[in-house]
Every structure is written in structure tokens, then in C-alpha cells.
Amino acid sequence: MTHSVHPYSFRIGILRDWKSRWFQHKNFAKFLKEDVEMREWLMKKLRASLVSGVEIERSRNTVVIYIKTPRPGLLIGRGGEGIEKLKKEIQKKMNFKDLKVTIEEVRNPYADAHVVARLVTQDLEKRLPFRRVLKSYIEKVMNSGSAKGVRIEVAGRLDGAEMGRREWLRKGLIPLQTLRADVDFARDRAALPYGTVGVTVWIYRGEVFDKENEKEKLEK
């Protein structure tokens, strides 16, 4: 019987890094709970900004939050007003003494699974036909220049049907069992009047080799 493995956790230490980078013996459970609550709160609050991910680094006295988005101007605001307001809200919610918030731009949004999943849910919430949405975003991902394969799956009461079902479209390659394959993965949910529809996105961006192996190949 097969077991499904999360594509991100499957590649941690090989192609991916931890989303929370710190270590603490005494307050490990407390810090972990804070990170999970803060990440969920930020992803929900900044939903319109198409946030791709939230990474957290902690030192002895400082907490640094990295927010990745293809729309950095919306978060930063005029003269940095938006980021200062967000920083105050985080400090009020989490009681951090020394906090730094850094905005990182996602330069190719159609090669990012989280951004694509959020765009698909937005179109589904606008009541667009799901097959048209899937086809359009699969073409946009493949035309982005960075993707070699994409699969988008939706599940639920599609188009208001009485019974839930699962539909998906794929183009190109999705090598899920290859560790050196750079497969980006994301899940999201569209809130519709007849229930929620789950959206799952896989984007394959090619294989990643060690620099030493690449040098040996070039020398040969």
C-alpha cells in the first residue's frame, strides 16, 4: 500500500531549508507554537498580497520574519507605512521585544506553487468554471519559462454538484520520487457558497545538481 509524502519535507536538507531556523532546549514547544500561530495568522491576513511563504529566524534577542510575495509594494506601502503598521500588529499579537520584518520579492510568480494556488482559489471564488481556470493557469505556468511540468488538482463540490469529486490536469513532468527534482508544492482552499473546494498545485522546475558534480561534468 502506497504512502503519500509531502514534497517539501521529503527534500529538507537536500533542496529545501527549514521554514523556522532556530534552536532552543527549554522553550522549544513555546517557540514552535508561536511560529505556527504567527505563520497561519500572517498567511490569512495577507491573503490578498499572494504571500508565498513566511520564514522565521530567531537569535537570543531578535526575531526576523521573512515574507515572500510577488506584490512587495502592497505590503511596504508609501514610505514604508504598510510594513511599519504590520510590524506593530505582530509585536502587539506576539509580544516580541526586538522584531525585524523583511519583504522578499517573488520574481516569477507563475513558477511558485503557493502563488498559483492562491490565484486559482481567487478565480474559483469568483465563480469561474473550474476547467477553464485549470487550463488557463497550466498554460501560464508552462509559459513562465521556469517550469518543466505542472499539475493542478481541485476537489469538492465542483460547479455546485451534489456529490464531491476530484479533477486534475497535468502538463509536462512531475518526478515526485526524485530527490534532486525541484518540485514546489502548495495547498489552498476556496470558500464557495456550496462548500469549500481544495486546490493542490505541483510545479516541477528542473533538477538541481551539486556545483562540484557540474564542474566535473564540464571538465569531462
UniProtKB/TrEMBL annotation:
Q: Which Pfam families match?
A: KH_2, Ribosomal_S3_C
Keywords assigned: Ribonucleoprotein, Ribosomal protein, RNA-binding, rRNA-binding
InterPro entries in the cross-refs: KH_dom (IPR004087), KH_dom-like_a/b (IPR015946), KH_dom_type_2 (IPR004044), KH_sf_prok-type (IPR009019), Ribosomal_S3_C_sf (IPR036419), Ribosomal_uS3 (IPR057258), Ribosomal_uS3_bac-typ (IPR005704), Ribosomal_uS3_C (IPR001351)
According to its UniProt entry, the protein's GO biological process terms are: translation
Query: Taxonomically, which superkingdom?
Result: Bacteria
| Coiled-coil regions listed in the entry | none
Report domain KH type-2 positions: 38-107
The molecular function terms of the Gene Ontology recorded here are: mRNA binding; rRNA binding; structural constituent of ribosome
Q: Name one GO cellular component term.
A: cytosolic small ribosomal subunit
Homology family: Belongs to the universal ribosomal protein uS3 family.
Q: What does this protein do, in the record's words?
A: Binds the lower part of the 30S subunit head. Binds mRNA in the 70S ribosome, positioning it for translation.
Subunit architecture: Part of the 30S ribosomal subunit. Forms a tight complex with proteins S10 and S14.
Protein name per Swiss-Prot or TrEMBL? Small ribosomal subunit protein uS3
* Species whose genome carries this gene: Candidatus Ryanbacteria bacterium RIFCSPLOWO2_12_FULL_47_9c
